[in-house]
Amino acid sequence: MVKKYKLIARIILLLIVQFNYAQVGIGTTNPQATLHVQGNVRVTNTNNTTTSTQLLGNCAQGDITSIKVGEGLLLKDNELTASGTGTPTKYKIANIPIVTSAPNQNFDNVNLDLSGVNTDIVIFRMGPLHNYTISGISGGTDGRHLIIYNSSAVNLTINSMSSLTPANNIDTLGSSTSTSGVGTIEFVYDGTLSKWIVINIRN
Hints:
It contains 1 helix and 16 strands.
């Protein structure tokens, strides 16, 4: 009799373990997670009085995961808004090698890889050995904001509307503009007019 009870206990324990580690599939016979849904998911009549503390997203394989709310955003009372207080906006910086072989060398259609590895970069640091000129910047999209930081004591000149590729033109709103040694030049891209616009310059 004792052996019989031990056998029953082992069977129950095995069933509990299997239940705890079971994977449920909806629309699939081969679930890859605790709950695997192959198809669309619809949620209705949500309780908006419950306070949300996280955002959710899914990867290429469909796994759902939480998403961090970055600086400058605020999730409060189930509403995601831009935060006007707290930590100031942070600009990411990338170094762009500019090699000059002689003074006043012109660089047209400068490729900053704005839609590639530098998609989230705002400030581009350049520091060549000679005075240099930029006539065009490639990869502009509507509203794209960037700042060129000339970190060396040489002068950076921006030629106005002189790129060989019209969509890469830079409008300085006048004649050419330049830094006097170390300085920054700030640009924004106008997608309607297909050109960069210089909006600020600081020495």
